[in-house]
Amino acid sequence: DRTIESDPPDGSWIIDSVKEGGTEPGFRVVIPEVGTFLFKMDKKGEPDRATGATVVGTRLFHALGYETPCESIVTARASAFKVAPSAEGEPLPGLRKKFDQTTVDRVLSKAHQVNGRFRFVASSWLEGVSLGPYRFVGTRFDDPNDVVPHEDRRELRAMRLLAAWINHVESGERNTMDTFLVDRATKKGFVRHFTIDLGDAFGSLAFHDEDSKRLGHTYLFDLPMMGQDFASLGGIHRPWERAQDTNGIFHYFTAREFDPESWHGAYPNPAFSRMQEDDAAWMARLLARLDESLTAAAIATGNFGEANAHYLEETLKIRRRLILTRFLSRLSPLADARLEGDRLCVTDLARVSEIASETRISYSAFEMKENETTPERVLAVESRDANLACVALGAPDSRERYRVIDVFNGFASGPLRIHLYAHGNEHSIAGIERPTGHGAYARF
Question: Cα–chain-centroid distance for residue 143?
């Protein structure tokens, strides 16, 4: 409902302030009868990547449950802008706070253009009162609803895996924003947490080429690594030493040396550093549900051109597969446990994502004793279609009010453990767990 037309008439976009900070120049723009937007541009010499990465990255983050602004790619000439008399800001270091059209032209001179047209990402202005960025450690003192330390929140720990997928290396608090909103119905306020500024994804460049090669592999300032290199006299061969520029707009963004388990942002993140196996497996299950056609649709909004879009699609496909192969192979990828009559059915995300061949899949199920650690008997499992497995429960025993079922798919080492209550002739699911595998099942 906020369609922005490219190449608008002269003077139809009104600049009322200039973006301060960040690596890409930009303005806050008011488009009459459409809304207020933050316009950001590609740096000169880096066409399309940053603006496209912002648009695609926010869609991928949003698809996986994170709050993001609405972003679109638009093009316009410099003449499309008109500076409001009250406009303020510091568009470039040393420039005065009050600015005019000449100042705008100077800012635009730092941006990439083709045939007199500039390519922008238009980011819808966030609703509510800005509270500034949120941190990846501690809680907000001014938000009574914020009671779990951020470094212990699963969605922030597991964001590391999503950042690794797209190589969002600037994944710190500077790329977040909290706003305070009021619910119109209840008149009560709440804080909404946004992930913003994903323009560093898909192969951003650092100031030095050697640092650009290291992005995603190590922190820019990594004392332990420096100590290892000193002690070994440089004898350790690092993956970025083999990095090669793609000769396209994505530079060193490849799948060739990608290791999702050892991925690092440009600097430490307290929540990312505390990511556990179950956090990563949770994110992997979300990624497994992200159909490749949805990823392709997100990439299409970046307007990269056919060759670049194809490269990005194939690279993300391989990187996603590497993530899923690693983090769906230990804790169980079985999900969506539900009861269908006297059967307990689960969806196998290893098959949904096609990371496990048919020869690797072999379903088995065990009913556990009361101590929940020792199998008591084997249950029959039927694979009804490519992604679904169902366990035959049978009618509840009148003496057994509580049952624990472990289901394996043969690909992951651990089972999906389902806790059941028996109510008369029916069962209900009380909870699920994903323990690590152990050898107590061997005798069966």
Answer: 25
